[in-house]
Amino acid sequence: MFKMNASRKLTPEELDAIAEIRKRIASKKWIEVVEDNKLNSDMFLIRYARASKFNFDRAEKMIKYYADSLRCEKPDPITLLQTVFPDDFTDYVRGYVGGRDYEGRPVVMLPEAGRKWNLKKIIQNGGEHMFIKYIHKVGLTIEAEILERDADYGICVIDVGEIPYANYFHRRSVEVLVELVRHMEKCAPEVIKRVYFVNAPKLWIALFAAVQAVITIKADIIIFDCNMNSWKTKLREIFPEDGICPEFGGTCANYTLV
């Protein structure tokens, strides 16, 4: 496992902020649901400090929201991480967590999101709740990788090509995705801090811009159009060859199938 040891790069001010947040939450009864490896991780706590712009009251509220989410999660996080989704669901939805950028940050790789992730059909077939569970499992998996590597955040690479035009305008699909983004940013800020969308058609780019005008997406968003040679070249500048899966131009085979 490539260990980043990102906490060595924290500034004195950031280390002071971590100490203050750790002191504030140490005696709270609700914090008991959060695992010790997270509470002992500087990189876990600094994400809340940064997301709150170093407002400690706000950071504490965000961590409490995270703890409450863990407590209320059905199934619980450990069970969810062990959940195997049925074949008729994974035919539509599949992702990979692993790889790395040049600094060792883990990557969520979704090379089939545009071609096979038919959220409209999943919802119409009654699978909305299962899809939400799946996204939560992806979030827990990348969070575990971040902690294991002592990284500052995770990265996501998504191929959004070949989405059927009818799916762009399925209202409930958009609502579900927006609700998930809002929950994840409130619950686990900066777990995914950088997102690369590749193979993006012009219509998708226009509609995504419209969604961004409605909700604030705190992650850094980078969009590459349908010029495959161009976006594969750009990804190679960000990820080593063994850090990204073959569909994105690499050779990575060290990942967890989610």
From TrEMBL:
One Gene Ontology CC term in the entry: cytoplasm
Protein name, UniProt field: CRAL-TRIO domain-containing protein
Source organism: Allacma fusca
Pfam assignment, any one: CRAL_TRIO
Residues covered by the CRAL-TRIO domain: 85-256
